[in-house]
Structure formats: C-alpha cells, structure tokens
Amino acid sequence: MKILIKLSGESLSGSNKEGDRQFSEPTLGSIVLHIKMLQGDGHEVALVVGGGNLFRGHELTGKLAIERPTADYIGMLATVQNALILRDYFESKGVETRVSSAITMPQICEGYIPKRVERHMKKGRVVIFAAGLGAPYFTTDSTSVQRALEMKADMLIMAKNGVDGLYTADPDTDKSAVFIKETTASEVLERDLKAADQSAIALAKEHGLLIKVIGVPDIARALDPEVGSLIRPI
Question: 27 near 216, Cβ under 8 Å?
C-alpha cells in the first residue's frame, strides 16, 4: 500500500510547552519507529511536513508590511528546514530518506520530479515533500492532497498533534465535542469540520482520495480500522 502522511510542523515539538521553535527528540524517535513499522509491513511511505513550529506567515503580515506571497514563501522555506532535519534524523536511525522540494535547492536537496519520487519509494526510501507546492496561497494540506494524487497514494493520513481523530469541534476548548468515526468529504465541507482546509478536502473529494485523521502517536496503526477517523471521498 502506498501511504502519504501529513505532519504539521507543531507535531515535531511534541508536547513541549516552552515554545514553538523546539524539536522533541522523543517525538521524532517515535515517528521514525512508526514509519519503520509501516515499511516493515510492506508499505511505501512519503511525508509532507509543515513549518508552523518555525514560522507562521500571519506573524509577519500582521505586524510588518510584508505581503502575503512573501510570507508564504518564507513559510515554504520553514518546511524545507523541517524536512532536512527529519531526513538526517531518519538516516541516523537507519531509514533511507530523500527530500523532494517544490523550490529547487540543488545544493541541499532534490527538486520535485514525480518519476524520481516513485523510484525512491519503490526502493523503500521515505520521501519528504518540502516547500509546499512552490506557490503562495496554498497550504500544506493542499500540498498533501496534491502529492498523494500525483503519487497515486492509496490513502492520505493526516497525523494530528494532540487529538486522536476528527471531532465536531475542538475537544480542547469545547467539552461537548463528539468524536466522528467515519464521515464523507461532503459532510466535512458542509459542516466546516477542521480535518484540513476546505480546498484540500474538495480536491480529495473530486478525485476520490481516501483520508484518515489520526493522532501522531498512532501512525504505526494508521491502517487499523479501530484507529482514527475515516473521510470517504463522496
């Protein structure tokens, strides 16, 4: 099975409370162990990583006269930083890894070439997609759906930090929030459920991509029917 996993930048800091800019080694260790387990079961794995632990565009656009496209490009560079950290960490744990960037940076990583990515995955390498789609106004949620479709992934796994699936509201702030075991992309859009941004969900629905929302600690069990929330593309 071919799987694409979306990791937020914040998930790399685990439960750290001291600031967004930290990386949690235990969390990274857990992620790489889970990926090893998925590969051990014969699955091909790719990742899309966000950059929110290092940079958020609204911090600049809200305080300085920085235009949205510029802020978005800076955010893309943050995802490259996270991807490079993950690559070296994974390699140190015996997981062969490549970074594929939508913005060309030949000195530090490969540019995004779909056929090359497919070859890497067939050889058992983890591929980390960085720099989003290489264009402003698109989130890493949209990148995840786009790359999953291009790679013909069987499922997109949205690994969330601090929650174990999809809820009717934020369970941290709304005690009446109800866990949703299974739903459709249409319902997610109609109810504005916070699985991913709406353009990403709409694209997945249009092209028949199955999405599963899980917690980061459940990555190794992502395909277990008892884990997480399933979003069917209807």
Answer: yes
**What does the alpha-carbon distance between residue 100 and residue 65 come to, in Å, rounded to a whole number?**
31
Q: How far apart are CA 217 and CA 157, in angstroms?
A: 13
Cβ pair 82, 60 in contact under 8 A: no
Write the DSSP string, 4-38. Answer: EEEE-SGGGGTT--S-TT---HHHHHHHHHHHHHH
Domains of the chain: 2-232 (3.40.1160.10)
The whole-angstrom separation of Cα 97 and Cα 229 is: 28
Which residues, at least 6 apart from 103, have a Cβ–Cβ distance to it below 8 Å? 76, 77, 80, 131, 134
The answer to whether 53 and 10 are in contact (CB under 8 A) is: yes
What is the mean pLDDT, run by run of 10 residues, along the chain of 234 residues?
95 64 86 97 97 83 84 95 97 98 96 97 97 95 97 96 92 92 97 92 97 96 96 96
First-to-final CA distance of the chain: 21
| Tokens 């994974």 sit on residue | 90
Handedness of CA 188, 75, 34, 146 (dihedral sign): positive
Tokens of 33: 């162990």
Does the pTM of the predicted model rise above 0.85? Answer: yes
Is the Cα dihedral 142, 69, 117, 113 positive or negative?
Answer: positive
Task: Report the C-alpha gap between 47 and 126 in whole angstroms.
Answer: 7
Distance CA 4, CA 152 (A): 10
pLDDT for residue 172: 86
